Amino acid sequence: MDKISPKYQMEIVQNINDRLYELFKSYDDVEVYVEKWREVYDEFGNANFYIQYKNNEHKKIDLKKTLHLVDGETLLKMAIDLGIETPDFIPSIPTFKNELKSSYATAAQTFEKAYRNVEKDPNLAIGLANSALESILKEILKDERLDVQYNGRDTLSKLIKNICKAFCYDTENSLPNEVQRIAQSLIGCSNAIEDLRSTKTEMHGKTQDDFIIKDPMCASFIVNAVSTVGLFLLNYYKAKYPPMDNNLPSTFTSDDLPF
Q1: Is 120 exposed, middle or buried (0-12, 13-18, 19+ CB in 10 A)?
Q2: pTM listed for this prediction
């Protein structure tokens, strides 16, 4: 993700710079926004990037210099957060991460671990990606409006069948037939991911002669597939079942009138 082209990074830095000064009129507010993207790793202050300033008094952030120190993935997340279009890049993973962080904390942590292990531990990455997708489906199925029974111990293959049943992909007339077929194939895709986890990773007991996936390319493929499937399901769920305002009174009485 960090290896997006320098030309594209230059373009996205300029767009983020312009957008921030359009939204926030002061250096202080811009600095506060950027600071929220910093991740400090330890008590010594080591972080993923450092704020740069225009002067020694540290009163005015040098936004462009600061943004050029930010890794590619975080730049894309900033762009998504600010509503900046990224036509030359399909940011499914950073978009997916942002969606998870807002409402699915457990799945977000699991998927982050999967993403970080793609290169150094591919079979672990696949197992964690499977678990992250399971967590998302379980959270969606908790919504009583879906009216689908499920077991908290269900694995991915059973959960995805319940989701497809709840979303009525086989009868959803608002989707083109081709999209319906792709949606229905989520079952096959999810079954394959679960089978990989069960038979080609160390998530279940294995012997010395068993085949274990060690190729980062395979892990990257699975993690990207999970982000694409998960993002589609989350967006479809939000569109069909908008979040309910739990702060509204359950009953209406004359006392609720403003006069």
Answers
A1: exposed
A2: 0.60
Q: Which tens digits make up the pLDDT trace of 117-143? A: 888 888 888 889 999 999 999 989 988
Residue appearing with tokens 């010395």: 208
Show me where the domains of the chain are located: 1-89, 92-241
Q: In this structure, are residues 51 and 61 in contact, taking their beta carbons and an 8 Å threshold?
A: yes
**1-5 contacts: CB < 8 A, separation 24 or more?**
1/71, 1/72, 1/73, 1/76, 1/93, 1/94, 2/71, 2/72, 2/73, 3/72, 4/72, 4/76, 4/89
Give the torsion sign (CA, 31, 17, 224, 115). negative
Cα(79)–Cα(163) distance, rounded to whole angstroms? 31
Q: What's the per-residue H, E or C state across 164-192?
A: HHHHCCCCCCCCCHHHHHHHHCHHHHHHH
